[in-house]
Amino acid sequence: MSTEIKKYNKWIVILSIAIPVVVAILFGVKIDAELPIFLPPIYASINAFTALLLIVAVWAVKNKKIKLHEKLMKTAITCSVLFLAMYVAYHMTSESTKFGGEGAIKTIYFVILFSHILLSIAVIPFVLITYVRAITNNIELHKKIARITFPLWLYVAITGVIVYIMISPYY
Q: What three-state secondary structure class fits 126?
């Protein structure tokens, strides 16, 4: 393994641990400030756009449009970072909204929510490893892990939108 890849691996481990820990810590921080805009529909839209980017990126690579694929994937990563920043900012400045549904819909909501949260943590190292394998031109290994990363990331993006739609009547 090259020194460059070892350097990236160290950062993948650090970020895969630090991001969820920092987000969890920031959830406990409350800032007495009102944001000028209501963020949940914006970051839900970013999730929807990310899902679309992921689908188009897979189409692009299957059609040998490698530069387009690269641009779409970099944009998807940027959107995910932007989503996370807005999500944390919202939860630092606003009280969490409680889901008001009852019965089976409440169970469905919490199954989707918990799977979304768990997989949003799990997908971090997959995205980072997939990206590093691409930028280090390790394309065969990139393809192998991308087959796992893509459905996980797509699930997280889509379920983020579903969670927003399900909780939006209770804001």
A: helix
Phi, psi angles (nearest 5°) of residue 147:
-65, -25
Q: What residues contact 135, with CB distance under 8 A and at least 6 apart?
A: none
Q: What angle do CA 7, 9, 13 make, to 5 degrees?
A: 125
At what angle are helices 66-93 and 40-62 packed, to 10 degrees? Answer: 160
Token pair in block for residue 21: 């820990």
On whether the CB atoms of residues 13 and 124 are closer than 8 A, the answer is no
**pTM of the predicted structure, to 2 decimals:** 0.93
Q: How far is it, in rounded angstroms, from Cα 68 to Cα 46?
A: 19
Report the distance separating Cα 62 and Cα 76, nearest Å. 17
Stretch 16-44: mean pLDDT: 92
**Radius of gyration of the chain from Cα atoms?**
17
Query: Residue 57 and residue 69: Cα distance in Å, rounded?
Result: 5
Enumerate residues 6+ apart whose C-beta is below 8 A from 87.
39, 43
pLDDT tens per residue across span 123-151: 999 999 999 999 999 999 999 999 999 99
Token digits for 62?
């299957």
Q: In 10 A of CB 103, how many CB atoms?
A: 7
Distance CA 80, CA 170 (A): 25
